[in-house]
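Field reference: sequence -> structure
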Amino acid sequence: MQLPELLRETVQQVIDLLVRKEYAELESLTGGVRMGSDEIARAISRYRRTLTRPPPEAFALMDVVPIINATLPSWSIVMPLWTREEGRSDLSLQLTIIQEQNGVRIELDDIHVL
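Structure field:
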């Protein structure tokens, strides 16, 4: 699998968990490094909209920045989120994705309004 596709699929996996409100599973996937399930739930509920999956073309808006001095290949990613009420919303997902020997490690850095 090529790198851009791997990053897109990883971000889609995180978004799918958010859309399904599977915050405990997302915390487990990310190790709860920066955001636990309660913080994730709070960030989403404060926005007062219903998250939905973005359209496929939305991934062209994904901001991917390589982390230069990281020990393992790593990227900082910001992805806008979509809601049922608005379509593209002001809410964004911020992740760090680290490529490891057997896959990727995901760190959920923040969910915030741009």
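Note: The chain has a mean pLDDT of 94.
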